[in-house]
Amino acid sequence: MTISEQTLDRAVTEGILTVEQANRLRALEASQFSDAVNEDRQDDEKLRFIGGFGDIFVTLGIGLFLGSIAWFVRTSFGTASMWAVTAALSWLLAEFFTRKRRMALPSIALVLAFVGAAFAAATFAIETAFPAGRPSWLPEDALAFLQDAQGWMIASGALGAMGLAALHYWRFRVPITIAAGAATACAAVIALSVTLAPDLPLHLRSALVIACGVAVFLLAMRYDTADPERLTRKTDIAFWLHLLAAPLIVQPLMFGFLGGVSDLDAPRALGILAIFFGLGIVAVIIDRRAFLVSALAYAGFAFGALIQRSGIQEQATPATLLALGVFVLAISAFWRPLRHAALRLLPESLTRRLPHPLTSKTT
Questions:
Q1: By the 8 A CB rule, do 260 and 215 touch?
Q2: How far, in Å, CA of 338 to CA of 131, rounded?
Q3: Residue 237 in contact with residue 175, Cβ under 8 Å?
Q4: Diameter of the chain by CA atoms?
Q5: What is the SS3 string spanning 172-217?
Q6: How far apart are CA 282 and CA 217, in angstroms?
Q7: If you average pLDDT over residues 88-99, what whole number do you get?
Q8: pLDDT tens digits along 248-296
Q9: Running DSSP on this structure, what letter comes out for residue 51?
Q10: DSSP 8-state class, residue 265
């Protein structure tokens, strides 16, 4: 007899099982079904976004409720109150839909609403408390970076939101919360860098963004290596962190080569494709597709530029889409063999810690 999702959720609510134990039972059931039906699917990224149409229905209701309340509060009490009320209501709704009902998609929506509203509320609160851009008790010549009110407020608001995100995770344990907190930390670092060094060259700012992305990537890999078989909540946390790290790395890295889209020449297009394939190798090794998704648009620009240079003008757009489609389908079809080939080239001490390591069963 198979235990239903409703029974597992109720067991968690009544304290019979912990969330971790319920996730392990789900993973065990999924792995047994996978082995019996299709052994080749064992390296898929299994994530619980939605438990049924009820999740979509509740998420729609949350959006309508929070949006309408925010409008009424803003018209009556102002923007700062709107964000504070939105954050408070998001928390209260999470007490029922996340902590009690354990609904996946509504929980994700409520986390994003809470952290975003908390960031805005903290920023507005700091602006109200220190309209001059620095606390009144600081001398004018101290901490000159506080003179830039906007940068200081953004950084302070981001740090405040990061603390609230940590509190939210402690209460509800929603995997995406870690990525939301990491995003606020990155925002604080970038805002402080702009405030402390307003004349910092663009390439150094891009390097800082890439460094933030690498830091998030390493945090994601810490969760991934702690759960190589992807049986616990840690794999969901790692997924969201990878989804955050990818654009932080890809965006500034590609932008340095891309420049103007309209005049992309062949050498820069080849450079973009080289970076794209390099990121693809990383994605295959760590068994995460987020890097490829983030860089796919840039690869499209590069393919398009090369196709136009080849003399195909009228069919450039469909030919570009065709090239991208062929690439995505090819790498999807041969993902597992490519990954096995790549892992065999790496030291065994490293491959043992990577997600879905090579074993006698998988080789």
A1: no
A2: 57
A3: yes
A4: 73
A5: HCCCHHHHHHHHHHHHHHHHHHHHHCCCCCHHHHHHHHHHHHHHHH
A6: 11
A7: 95
A8: 998 888 776 565 555 677 777 788 888 888 888 898 999 988 778 878 8
A9: S
A10: -
The residue ranking higher by pLDDT, 61 or 35, is 61
Tally Cβ neighbours within 10 Å of residue 125.
Answer: 17
Structure tokens at 134: 């620095």
Q: Return the structure tokens found at 335.
A: 């993902």
Distance between CA atoms of 108 and 111, rounded to whole angstroms? 5
Q: Are 181 and 162 in contact (CB under 8 A)?
A: yes
**Rounded Cα–Cα distance for residues 168 and 181 (Å):** 10
Question: DSSP string of 124-179?
Answer: HHHHHH-TTSS-TTS-TTSSGGGG-HHHHHHHHHHHHHHHHHHHHHHHH--THHHH
Q: How far apart are CA 324 and CA 344, in angstroms?
A: 28
Token pair of 267 as six digits: 């050498």
**Residue holding tokens 């390296």?**
43
For residues 284 and 292, what is the distance between their CA atoms, to the nearest angstrom? Answer: 9
**Are 133 and 148 within 8 A, CB to CB?**
yes
Instruction: Please give the structure tokens belonging to residue 253.
Output: 């890295």
Q: What is the spatial distance between Cα 363 and Cα 348, in angstroms, rounded to a whole number?
A: 14
Distance in angstroms (rounded) separating the CA atoms of residues 234 and 217: 14
- How distant, in Å, are the alpha carbons of 144, 272, 276, 296, 329 from that of 325? 52, 18, 15, 10, 6
Cβ–Cβ < 8 Å for 119, 172: no
Q: What average pLDDT score do residues 196-201 get?
A: 80
Task: Return the pLDDT at 23.
Answer: 79
**pTM for the whole thing?**
0.79
Q: What value does the mean pLDDT of the chain take?
A: 81
CA 7, distance to chain mean position in Å, is 30
Q: How far apart are CA 362 and CA 359, in angstroms?
A: 5
